[in-house]
Amino acid sequence: MHIPENYLSPSTCAVMTAAMVPVWVNAAKKVKTEISKEKMPLLGIGAAFSFIGMMFNVPLPGGTTGHAVGGTLIAVLLGPHAACLAVSIALLIQALLFGDGGILAFGANCFNMAFLLPYAGYAVYGLLNRKSSSEKGRLAAAALGSYAGINAAALAAAIEFGIQPMLFHTADGQALYCPYGLNVSIPAMMAGHLTLFGLAEVVFTTAVLAFVTRTSPDIVKGRPTERSGRPMLILLALLIAVVPLGLLAEGTAWGEWGTDEIAEVVSGGEVLGYTPAGMESGFELSTIMPDYTVAGLPDAAGYIVSAVIGTAICVIAFRLISSGMKQKTNYN
Amino acid sequence: MNIPDWMNEETEYIPQRDREGFISRSLLSLLGTLSRFRSNGKVRPGKTAAETRLICSLLTIVMVSLSRNAFFSYAVLALLLARICFLPSDRLPAVIKGAAGAAAFSVLILLPSVFMGSPRTMLTVSLKVFISAGILGLISACEPFNRITASLRSLGIPDLFIFILDLTLKYIVLLGEACEEALTAIKLRSVGRNASKEKAFSGVLGAAFLKSKKMEDDLTDAMACRGFEGEYRPPAKRSMTGYDICAFTFILVLFALFLFLERSI
Description:
The complex is a heterodimer of chains A (332) and B (265).
Chain A: H1 10-34, H2 40-53, E1 58-60, E2 64-66, H3 71-78, H4 80-98, H5 106-129, H6 135-167, H7 182-194, H8 196-215, H9 217-221, H10 229-241, E3 266-267, E4 270-271, H11 277-280, H12 299-324
Antiparallel strand pairs in A: 1-2, 3-4
Chain B: H1 5-8, H2 21-41, H3 50-66, H4 70-85, H5 92-115, H6 119-142, H7 145-154, H8 159-189, H9 196-226, H10 242-263
Helix pairs in contact in B: 2-8, 3-6, 3-10, 4-6, 5-6, 7-8, 8-9
């Protein structure tokens, strides 16, 4: 669901970034008051889980792939504001270091996956969880919440894609950025996310939530200790070890075609036939490991190394923030 | 008993504000340096011998510097970051700040290469600097300093260097503590506006110098009393533990990867 570079016009990107700025500011303020010094490293682990979840590509028959995001998982454990920041950091690392998702489109990607997904998912989870009090009820609520969240994000992404040819085209009708309108983008993105990719998100969220409830119940209760993060780190290490499975799914996700392949994309029986002008002459950031691989070496090696680097940066960043925070003394 | 008149007078002295921030700033930076030594003093030695750690780290740094394959640097970066993730919270910021500071400095120096058309140079060199500084930071975060200096002996470094290094580390802490006490005294006595603060402040360094001279005399006497001539006995031969063997195997694997990647260029 990452929107690549030059699929959205610069004005769309600017609008989405402007929309995200108050969300980020508000989330940062809330996190400063809600998340204590001991909980902050868990945010890093949450961001790492999100990063790793996005590396497992799930194939859909028809040639596209998608992935789980895990934003609702973090929202259930640490609150929606923390989830917003954690997913934003994961997306930032992916965009800057690995070229997954454009830099100019960073605001739009965050709007979809760091704002809509966790807040919508948490809202649904909160509504459903109020009615039940058992552990199974909480898992079910989280499952439905994550399903709702990822589909909300997919719908928003589809709308952002779909309005491009309407608003930004050349004089003879050729699109400058994303070439597919709402009538194509919405069914294409929702078909995958309502079925397999939504299922992937549900499975990811419930599995990790069940694991955390079983191994570190103090996190779920909201009183983590210094050692609470250990089982989650072990799970993270296991996930990193099997991350090359995410490479098995071949095929590019809908809306993530490269500039060289977009002209051949078939949609509704028709080949596109041209490369939108905005993509040919657009901005491209050269990253250290584009697409998580290194040229000349097996993809699996590059994938594992990227997974380790990405998750380690997430964990270290939040531990640094935690070390800079003051311990809140309860004077009562 | 009659209380004299001057005792009944109201004291109305409100000291004027003066620029005395320099005392606090110096004290803070001094305490920062001292705290690094003190936190290293709390480090318990790890299971691997300090010599093994030192040798493996130096070999890794040499391999990273010599490699022409970007993937090798990324792989070592991944391992370094994964190790840093597991450091305790009091040592992690120091390691990251040291490595990031060194890398930022290299970025600054190599910025002209971006304008000359090869930005890859800046990224590659800064990455290697980050890795090297990170590895060295890890050593100081995981081993107490006295073990590191002791391990230098087994690397074949001459006794004189180890002697100077040992004394330097000890006397940074001792003289630093003396300066800390002097600065705290000045801070407490700084009331109101007067010119003697600057004089007292420069006196701290002079006092430290005199104190170091006295400490040097004491040290010479102590060395003479104990018959120490600057010779460090080689440490008792330690047999290789399982941890040492693991460390050396790891370095061998890394070396094999290095050769494989160099040949494939």
